[in-house]
Amino acid sequence: MRDTLMRRVRTGAAAFAAAAALAATGAVTTQAAGAATAPAPLIHYGFDAASSGVVADDSGNGYDGTLRQTGATVADGALNLPGGARTTAGYVEVPTAGLVGKTQLTVSTWLENRTGPANVAAAFIGAPVASGASYSSGYWLLNPTNPSGYVKSVVTNTVSATAPWGTEVGAGSTSAATSGAKTPSGMALYTTVIDGGAGTLTTFVNGSRISQVPIARNVSSFGSSLVAYLGRSTYNDPGWSGSVDDFAVYASALDAATVQQLFAEQALAGATAAVTVPDTATADFALPTSNHGAAISWTSDDDAIAVSGGSATVTRPAAGSPDAEVTLTATFSAGGQTTTRSYPVGVPAQLTDQAKADADAAAIALPVDADDVRTSFSVPTVGADGSAITWAVSSGTAVAELRDGVKPGAATVKVTRSEASTDLVLTATATSGAATATRDFTLTVAAAPTTSADPEAYVWAFFTGEGAGAERVSLAASKGDDALRWNTLNGGEPIFTSTQGTTGLRDPFIIRSHEGDKFYMLATDLKVAGLAGGFTTAQLSGSLGIEVWESTDLVNWSEQRHVQVSTPYAGNTWAPEAYWDDELGRYVVFWASNLYPTTDASSRTAVTYNRMMYATTDDFVTFSEPQIWSDVQRGTGRGLIDSTVAKVDDTYYRFTKDEASMTIREEKSTDLLDTITGSLPGTTGDADEWTLVKEKVATGLPNGEPGGTFTSGEGPNVFPANPGDVNGLDWYLFIDQPDYHAGPNHYIPFGSNDLDDGASWQPLGATLRANLPQNSDGGKPRHGTVLPVTRAEYQQVLEAFAPAVAVAEVAPIEVTTRAGVAPVLPGASLTTADGATKQVGVAWGDVEAADYAAPGTFTVAGVAQDDSRMPVTATVTVTPGVDVAAETRCVAGKVTVIAKSTNHSSESAIVTVSSAYGERMFTLAAGATASTTFSSRLQVVPAGTVTATVEGVATTGAYGGRSC
């Protein structure tokens, strides 16, 4: 909790009370003689609390503020504003009755900016937007960090309804963006004096004047009706993101001495309230050298903590010695005033070597499920207390061996799974001096997968952009073995929501483990919605980490892991993907980062350009130090991003977004980790170097929208088609074409049979467009991954996230036909996982005539034509059908031919019996026999045959010659 004193503007009496209170806490304040006394404020918000959305005016004048829209909170003596879209971002509406007509006004407020360089407003007083206009024609506006990184405090000095920004004067104005001073880091006091009497606008930061300009207009010039805000203006800019610690408006023009006095008092109170020091220290730590605009210097009364600038170096007493009790003294200085405060810190004596070894051994945690080890993993080789940790495979040498780790301080347990699950015992020995401590870890290495079923479907992980329901990860499942037709899962709701980092998720990537039966999902830690400065801010001071989950079935996932993979010199960590490198025997994780010469993100004023970076890992828990993979500047602020990789035989194919043209570039190499620097490679080079296959892949092809063309895009995802994919292709390349690249804001698909031919991609967008998954908020897939999966894996996903699609049972399909008659195959009766039963059509496989030529049974495979594309099987029984036997007799001296027909099937048949002496047609019941006679009217007949025909299938019977 911040000191309540800092939330009150200091008058002479308040300053005396502040000094007394500070002295009571062990601090001493020195105040310059004859210090100026500020008048009582007209409006003052100390932000102690907000009740029912009302911010109390501490001045007593009744100008209570009102919280508007969403996300603005008041707590612990500060207003926190979220920034983001103007239509939703929270702000404070300030009453203006007391401001109308004022020729002199002083606005003084403590702000901590989170927006970054952008066109936003932390505070605003101006005319309301006139009818038919888009913004105020006259105003005062405060922006702590304009797009050039300078403090902006301006008034409009003439009237312009169409371009008022062009009339601004003052520090950091639109026409003088680098005038005044750069934005200080952390909480700072911004004071603006609008003096219509003197005709000046004066801006102070932390009590020091940074700008004074002549003005011809003041607040009284803005009219008889005003609007005033904290966190926005009347421009259609995003809301401002940051903290407001105190906001005061005075109905007079304060002089420089009073402004400095206000700063000194408030800075000292704020700094002393905010600064903390650990009660106990066992390792070096940092000390703040400034806070709330106050400078802080430090001294120590004991060598156990040596202080130099902002560094506290800890030397623990020797083992067996008493703990040290150290007093650190801070001297706070601001505006010619000083305050001291003392902080007791305990420094425990060193542990004994045995205690260090014991503690480091006890602290070891393995990054695997001890009962189900499926992959190699990292183990520590240095303990927190400095012990060296060595490892041995005490049992299970057939499935595990030790190798160097991916970085110093780690080793790798390389796991090679066998046909049966195997017990593994690892022994860790922590050594500190002459002392050791050992610890055994008993694990079970799972048996290697016994089958390698072909993939028969696909799962798609994606995000949908910014806004409602977005910047989370959704899953979709294909309609069977078809990468262009999809089922929406989970009722159209995202499945993964981030609780760490920026709490935003983009660009999900799923990789199947090298062993085949585990999955890892990576995602970008980025929340653009509500981020003032948007992608610029995200590249200047964005996340250094990625988000990681793991699963064995694509349904049940581990807890989210936020893992830092980027160097502190990076500004962002975008679109992580991974690929297994056979030569390394490890995963290579790659992503895009802007790199800067400093780790201080607040000092970065413009983006550099994105490089593709990489690190290696065994387990997606421990990563090597990041390395540059591709370093080519493609223009001001532009580089290379969004690489994705596929492999054919020994050659890797890499697709990357080239930000010079915002198109996709394809390259190939036999060495995944070959680097490019300075310029893009051409079409020639050694096989182990990246060489160009094609620039602007698929650019100019139809994108599937009516009359639409694929012009540019990002987030390419290349993946192999399944062997039985109904579209008959070998490879797919999905490219995200967002609306800012003239697209429909979702993926556009292309297909090819040859990755080595960059011109072979054919457009498939019209099919996918009609069969895209769609979230409940209307979002469609953007930057993500399509993963080929087995039928069993696909079934688990459907059962978990689409029970109305997942088939739980197929009713037996049995068909009977007579020999020689093609069977008529019916539809299928399916029962889904939610208990419903439905009749669906089936696309049956080919049935050859030989299959039903003779009695017996055979099966026919088919695919149900519902959303599940469930494989089904029909059992066909071929019955003998109708046969015929023939003989001759003498009747009245003439030869008669007799045909005896027998129906062996279970159904009646219409039989046509023919001979050389006539033809008869009749119905023969199931299982019945009938005789048909033909008189030859001859005394002598030669041998011959009779034929029985049913549904076009004929059988014959022979008879011998006869003489009567």
Summarize the structure.
By secondary structure, the protein is mainly beta. It is built from 6 helices and 68 strands.
Structure, described:
The chain has 964 residues and is mainly β. It has 6 helices and 68 strands. Strands 3-4-5-8-17-10-11-12-13 form a 9-stranded antiparallel beta sheet, with no helix packed on it. Strands 2, 6, 7, 9, 14, 15, 16 and 18 form an 8-stranded antiparallel beta sheet that branches. The chain has a 5-stranded antiparallel beta sheet with strand order 1-25-24-21-20. Strand 30 and strand 31 form a beta hairpin. The protein is elongated and about 150 Å long.
List the main descriptive attributes of the protein structure presented here.
68 strands; 964 residues; 42% strand; single chain; nine-stranded antiparallel β-sheet; mainly beta; eight-stranded antiparallel β-sheet; elongated; disordered N terminus
